[in-house]
């Protein structure tokens, strides 16, 4: 297995604002060759960090979206028994059914191990999986190899990937799992930090619109009884919607008007609560 270039440093990406502490934990995780576990509420940029690392370091990104019923073998490889059965029955595929390896397809971890170059491997929402999946997966990532039992073959990683694991903290992770990762909690940005994020995404945004949009956004996040608070991506899309509306006027935000609530609140009950709040508190 070839090791990565330890001289490579992550300092941020075009559309991702990173503070010094986050950049340091990314770089030390790469230097120590340990997975980086990220926690934080949805919308804090956990998933996008992996995209930013891949962009910054010029590496391909491979994403494993973890499901509650996923088995580890599915993340490693799949043996297509159905296709092989059909080929043996009908014999018109041109494949040699005795070559089982022709029916083996790599899963996301397998793809990262067999890639021609070093990759960033994002394992998204690990807390959806059960404890056995979590611990067995880290065994594979520690050893950088796994067995394909159908063909009695061991697959070893050509390059050690940069591994980013995200969790929404919906389920506790095991102590052995936590002990084998570096950890960073990404807090939701404060208004000053959000201004910097918005500046990166909208470098030409009129200052008064940015000020009132961000202030309105944070007031809306304070509403009680909302299940899913709007996150950074909702704010970005909301500002885009405001920019595209030829009838929108910034001063209307100062008066308490909040157009396009459906861009900010995606659940019906949250929308109803937010709409009631806006109409009751106007101006706010």
**Sheet with most strands:** 5 strands, parallel
CATH superfamily of the largest domain: P-loop containing nucleotide triphosphate hydrolases
Instruction: Return the CATH class of the largest domain.
Output: Alpha Beta
Class from helix and strand fractions: alpha/beta
Stretches with pLDDT under 50, minimum 5 residues: none
Name the beta content range: 5-15%
Secondary-structure element order, N to C: HEHEHEHEHEHEEEHEHHHHHH
- Number of self-contained structural domains: 2
Number of helical segments with 4 or more residues: 13
**What number is the mean pLDDT?**
91
Notes on the protein architecture:
The chain is an alpha/beta fold. The chain folds into two domains: 20-74 and 107-185, Rossmann fold (3-Layer(aba) Sandwich), CATH 3.40.50.300; 191-281. Helix content is 45%, strand content 13%. It contains 13 helices and nine strands. It has helices at residues 20-32, 46-57, 72-76, 81-90, 108-114, 131-143, 175-179, 191-201, 207-221, 232-244, 250-254, 261-264, 268-281, and strands at 36-39, 61-65, 77-79, 104-106, 120-124, 145-148, 153-156, 162-167, 182-185. The chain has a five-stranded parallel β-sheet, with helices on both faces. A two-stranded antiparallel ribbon has the order 3-4. A two-stranded antiparallel sheet has the order 6-7. A hairpin with a 4-residue loop joins strand 6 (145-148) and strand 7. The chain is elongated. It starts with 19 loop residues before the first helix and ends with a helix. The mean pLDDT is 91.
């Amino acid at each position: 297995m070839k090791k990565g270039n330890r001289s490579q440093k992550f300092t941020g990406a075009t559309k991702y604002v990173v503070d010094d502490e986050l950049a340091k934990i990314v770089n030390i995780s790469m230097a120590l060759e340990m997975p980086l576990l990220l926690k934080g509420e949805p919308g804090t940029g956990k998933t996008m960090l992996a995209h930013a690392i891949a962009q910054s370091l010029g590496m391909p990104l491979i994403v494993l979206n973890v499901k509650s019923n996923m088995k580890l073998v599915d993340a490693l490889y799949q043996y297509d028994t159905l296709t092989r059965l059909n080929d043996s029955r009908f014999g018109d595929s041109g494949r040699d059914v005795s070559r089982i390896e022709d029916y083996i397809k790599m899963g996301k971890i397998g793809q990262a191990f067999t890639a021609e170059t070093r990759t960033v491997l994002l394992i998204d929402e690990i807390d959806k999986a059960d404890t056995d999946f979590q611990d067995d997966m880290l065994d594979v990532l520690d050893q950088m190899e796994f067995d394909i039992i159908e063909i009695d073959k061991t697959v070893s990683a050509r390059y050690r990937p940069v591994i980013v694991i995200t969790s929404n903290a919906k389920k506790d992770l095991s102590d052995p799992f936590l002990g084998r990762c570096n950890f960073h909690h990404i807090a939701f940005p404060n208004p000053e930090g959000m201004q910097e994020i918005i500046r990166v995404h909208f470098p030409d945004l009129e200052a008064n619109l940015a000020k009132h949009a961000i202030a309105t956004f944070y007031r809306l996040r304070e509403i009680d009884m909302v299940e899913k608070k709007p996150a950074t991506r909702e704010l970005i899309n909301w500002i885009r919607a405001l920019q595209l509306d030829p009838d929108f006027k910034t001063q209307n935000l100062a008066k308490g008007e909040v157009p396009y609530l459906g861009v900010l609140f995606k659940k019906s009950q949250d929308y109803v609560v937010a709409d009631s709040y806006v109409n009751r508190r106007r101006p706010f």
